[in-house]
Amino acid sequence: MNSPSKLKRSSSPEAIELYFQKFGEKGADLVVLHGLFGSGKNWRGFARSFKNNLRIWTLDARNHGESAHADSMSYQEMVEDVVLFLDKNELENVILLGHSMGGKTAMQLAFRFPNRVAALIVVDIAPVWYDHQHKQLNLIEAMQELRLPEERSRSEIEKKLARKIPEQRLVSFLMTNLSHHNGHFRWRIGLEQIAAGMPELLNYPELKSVFNGPVQFIGGENSAYLKFEYHSLVRKFFPESRITMLKNCGHWLHVEQPNAFQKTVNKFLQYNNLI
Description:
Layout: E1 20-23, E2 29-33, H1 44-50, E3 55-59, H2 75-88, E4 94-99, H3 101-112, E5 117-123, H4 133-145, H5 154-164, H6 168-175, E6 178-181, E7 184-187, H7 191-196, H8 198-202, E8 215-220, H9 231-237, E9 241-246, H10 253-256, H11 258-271
Parallel strand pairs: 2-3, 2-4, 4-5, 5-8, 8-9
Antiparallel strand pairs: 1-3, 6-7
Helix pairs in contact: 2-3
């Protein structure tokens, strides 16, 4: 079941309806929030692996995937978007899983609406400010420099993008945002809006509360997003949290080590009688 695949643009700061996909018909509700430049489609493999025991909802954030584009992009607004989704689908108390940007959104939602979160799973991100705005803006610039209306093949676009971005895994990931509509290629994501909101996306609002529910943080040992020096801060604001670092993987651990990632999630859910 999907929300409308064609959603109108929103120029107001109010919450917008998010595109989603649903997997499974029984069990507790688990809502997945993807990371920057991603979409719910990146989590279909994970969703299918749990669909016999849970109802999995994969959401597209504003300015991403099939969701509407909006002029502003803050964590406060993204939290309100998710709460609107929960309300419209009559989901009162959910397991919330967020990766990277989605993890920051999930943490903020848990702080503001703890009664809506039965458990929290935060994937390779910490409640800190990150100093890599230049790198992210370079990715956006590389995508914007391509003259998509003039391009005739997906492979040529990928080759040109690879000349500007040396990491092939990252190029392949960004290419998942390319669509073909009315005879022309275009990026699904709102590059201008994301670029304008980048300082906000890399920042983290000052924390003045804690979330006392069950929390699982999962990081990649080869990633710098959930470094050991951040673990004490995680435990300060999430006193019931456990932290698991997966070997031989970086930031996209659900793709790089899917079996280990799914095993960690399953163990956490079983421990808390959620599956």
